[in-house]
Specification:
This protein is of the alpha/beta class. The protein has helices at residues 10-22, 33-42, 59-68, and strands at residues 2-6, 26-30, 47-51, 74-78.
């Protein structure tokens, strides 16, 4: 199964990528919205793990564009937002 991990926090990227690869996933990564948009256009992914708060273009804007364009990949959203 091919997965795209879109996250800008490097320690989290390393940990998630390592764990997912140990479980047998093929993992590509992107660090910002621009890179994510390019990778989603040029390859097919079974699952996309998408951070909501990204540099260059936020995750929710990307997801809306992808759905309008017909992207059918499953998408899991990550957020660091918390309640105080």
């Amino acid at each position: 199964m091919r997965l795209l991990l879109i996250e800008d926090h490097e320690p989290l990227v390393r940990a998630l990528k390592r764990g997912l690869e140990e479980e047998g996933f093929a993992v590509d990564t992107a660090r910002d919205g621009e890179e994510a948009a390019h990778k989603a256009r040029t390859a097919e992914y079974d699952v996309i793990i998408l951070d909501i708060m990204l540099p260059k273009e936020d995750g929710l804007s990307l997801l809306k564009k992808w759905r309008r364009a017909g992207l059918k990949s499953h998408v899991l959203l990550l957020t660091a937002r918390g309640h105080h």
